[in-house]
Amino acid sequence: MTIKDWLPPIFTKSSTMPVSGVTPSWWWNHGGSMADFPGASPSIDTAQENSAIAYACIERRAGDIARVPMVVVADKSDLSKPLPDSDPVVSLLNQPLTGFDGDQMMGLLATLYLLRGEAFVVGDQPLSPKALYPNMDPKDWREAVTPRGVLAGWRYEGQAFQASYVPGDVMQVRTTNAAKPYRGLSPLQSAALSYKIEVQGDTLQSATLGQGGERSIVWQYPLTSEYGEPQLQQLAEAIKGRRRGAGQPSRDVLIPKLEALDPRFTQADLDVLAHQGMAAKKISYAYKVPMFLLGDAAAPNYATAKLLVEEYWRAVILADLSKFEAAFNRFFRAAFPGKKVAVAFDRSKIASLQADMLQQANIAK
What we know:
Largest sheet: 3 strands, mixed
């Protein structure tokens, strides 16, 4: 048995820390700085799990999108005459899938749209579908584009099944991505560095608490160590014999060429913590969600907050609703050829904008 067989958490060869599969916590507890963690940045796909601020931004904005009532009409200019529940489009939006209602579908689509920058829906059949499938991971979709840059079709390559579709058979709602015009861009991608800092700051603090307020003591020995197997076995026995709280003031093991790394925070660690607060703000900027809407204690006064909320709905949520409307309408017009149908969100039901709409109506009179 060697030291590395029984002490992998605290004993490592210098310059040989593996990169593949290493977690930030493992790296930090082995003497590395969070600022120069060699592993990949935390995945945007799991931002809701890794970042409280990203989760709050997505949950707030997706919830605001999903809770605006949707109506299906024959003429979008007159929302007072919705189509009956027996209409096939209304029926699909009310119950797109067995065990999955319309509110759940909108919540999922809005969440994927904000997390991945895009969301997809297909029907169980191209024409007059009887069911909709909104739970298809955007990362499993592949676009086919002609040499002239025209979208020719889509390919879904999920684990459960694979299928090809013509563009009209697929509903896609997406953010604008100048580099890839037919794909969306996650808002978090523009704040990727801030996201990494925020996640690593949490990891660093978690590792600190787990170690009682400081790093693990990390021992390292040179790659060209002259220790043979008997010496390593003796060293292992000596270190194993040390017990915390054994009643002796010092039972240090002194071995030539063995170095104890400094267990205190490095300056790079402190920089990560110092920038973590600003990282959270940058993530909220990327999502266009004011921090006070996420529960930030430093909220503006009532009058200012009211104006900010109204601007958030006008500039952000209304734009999101327009994208979803356009995506639904393209899809349903292709799925039900010749049918007069329009999907619209009833903006008059948005409480934050009702006073503004009333004022506009009075001016129009």
